[in-house]
Amino acid sequence: MSTETIRIEVNGESREVGGGSSVADLLEQLEVDGRTVVVELNRQIVRRGERDGVELEAGDRVELVRFVGGG
Amino acid sequence: MSTVLEKGADREEPARVDEPLALGGRSFRSRLIAGTGKYSDAGTMVAALRAAGAEIVTVAVRRVDLDASKEESLLHHLDPEEFFLLPNTAGCYTAEDAVRYARLGREAGLHDWVKLEVIGDEETLYPDVEEMLDAARTLVDEGFTVLAYTNDDLVTALKLQDAGVAAVMPLASPIGSGLGLLDPVGIRILKRRLDVPVIVDAGVGTASDACLTMEQGVDGVLMNTALAEAEDPVAMAAAMRRAVEAGRLAYLAGRMPRREWAVPSSPSAGRLT
Questions:
Q1: A67 vs B74: CB contact, 8 Å cut-off?
Q2: pTM of the entire predicted model
Q3: I need a surface site. Which of A22, A43, B184, B260 has the fewest CB within 10 A?
Q4: What is d(CA B67, CA B91) in angstroms, rounded to the nearest whole number?
Q5: pLDDT above 90 for B8
């Protein structure tokens, strides 16, 4: 991972992550439990098994969602 | 022992007269589907779901709160072995949004079922049937088992059935209103005309509403606010379980005809003169 950082958007908020970070790295950085979370990257779902291999790029828009109570 | 008593002992338990609810190729023993929203705490929610005897429970898909990411996930409380989690698309106003939420829900869960909601009006939360049909067609094409929340309009319901939904879910009255079943005739017409299961979704306020709804012959009822906003959600859930069963059995038993005159229950023969 390079020391440079890039700006991405996570759940509508601007965030900085290390250049070369993967989706899995992002979850770790945000301390989000990856087992119950679904990741959407630029409107495409990143499957659980693909999170290590998908590298984030500047300007990426990430959504992290999960189940909450609802009717 | 008298013949009558012997006969009585041999009789099947009334509850066994009913068949399981067949839905989307699966079979469910409970006809009460419960939402998981608006509970004061997770413990009360789970206790209420159990008291209601619910098997299918609905959940919503929302952003993770990144400032409180360590808060317990809903999945921590709802064991998928115990409850069949049905993701909804609540809060969606377009077909595109609903399809997006449905895909996220499928990824978060364990199957490809979705309770499809596409809202068209903020005040009444009435469905946008045009967007709903569009979304239903897309999701059925993608292999989803779609349970579609709609109004009690027959033509829309028939179009949803043609689109391949697994169930049509007409409202009893607006979501969260607790007004009960406003149009029993409309619901009966839907049930009579549709081949897919009809599950009344939204508007039930108390046990008599649920019972009256099931007496129309529908396949099930979905409720959330009636339980979550009751003063005692667990007690209300227990009441609702009985009400749904009672309404279902009353429907199967076949009610007596209504007549606008009295008929004595005691014999007129043998009265003293």
A1: yes
A2: 0.90
A3: B260
A4: 23
A5: no
